Amino acid sequence: MHKTILLIPLIIFLLVSPACVATAKDKTENSTAQKHIVAGYIENVSIKIWDRESPVIMEAKMDTGADSSSLHATDIIINKTKKQVSFTLTDQHGKTQRITCPYARIVRIKKRPSGYQRRAVIPVQLQIGPKNFEAFVNLTDRTNFSYKMLIGRKELRHGILIDSSRHHRLSQ
């Protein structure tokens, strides 16, 4: 009789335990799925730079092969004494604006076939679909490229998955 009384709570525990584990696992998987969005390989991106009131909207290529993000800029002048960079930015409608802002660091990017290029890296506020986050982008002349902004893996790690078969998935 005493052994039977001890076995009853154990049997109940074993029967209820898998259901609790499955429920907890389902909740974890659902919350992970809600943290991620699926973007197309090309998306409209909102970029807020430093103290600018309004963000710049432009098309960007989501590039899982690139580690960092790059933003098209021309007439780039780096002032190391003030730790500032001045550049001209053009949005997707052709409107240009001259911007001067602090830079976070200068990076060396290997160029093909040989040599290096120094680029200023600036902090920005990025919005891709519903995702809004701080990011660091390097400034470079992307005149010869189809898209004036490239979003690399460091920014895609903010919960953005890429559907390489579609573009402007978040805009539709």
Summarize the structure.
It contains 2 helices and 12 strands.
Give the helix/strand layout.
Blueprint: H1 2-35, E1 37-40, E2 42-49, E3 56-62, E4 69-72, E5 74-79, E6 84-90, E7 96-102, E8 105-110, E9 116-128, E10 131-140, E11 149-151, H2 153-156, E12 160-163
Parallel strand pairs: 1-12, 3-11, 4-10
Antiparallel strand pairs: 2-3, 2-9, 4-11, 5-6, 6-7, 8-9, 9-10
Q: Could you explain how this protein is built, in words?
A:
With 172 residues, the protein is of the alpha+beta class. It starts with a helix and ends in a 9-residue tail after the last strand. The model is unreliable at 19-32 (pLDDT under 50). Helix content is 22%, strand content 46%. The strands form 3 sheets. It has a 6-stranded mixed β-barrel with strand order 2-3-11-4-10-9. It has helices spanning 2-35, 153-156, and strands at residues 37-40, 42-49, 56-62, 69-72, 74-79, 84-90, 96-102, 105-110, 116-128, 131-140, 149-151, 160-163. It is built from 2 helices and 12 strands.
Order of helices and strands: HEEEEEEEEEEEHE
- The rounded Rg comes to 24 Å
**Portion in helices:** 10-25%
Shape: globular
**First-residue to last-residue Cα separation:** 68 Å
Number of strands: 12
The biggest beta sheet reads: 6 strands, mixed, barrel
Q: Note the total helix count.
A: 2
What is the average per-residue confidence, as pLDDT, rounded to a whole number? 86
Which class best fits the helix and strand makeup?
alpha+beta
Indicate the low-confidence ranges by residue numbers: 19-32
- Work out the strand percent: over 45%
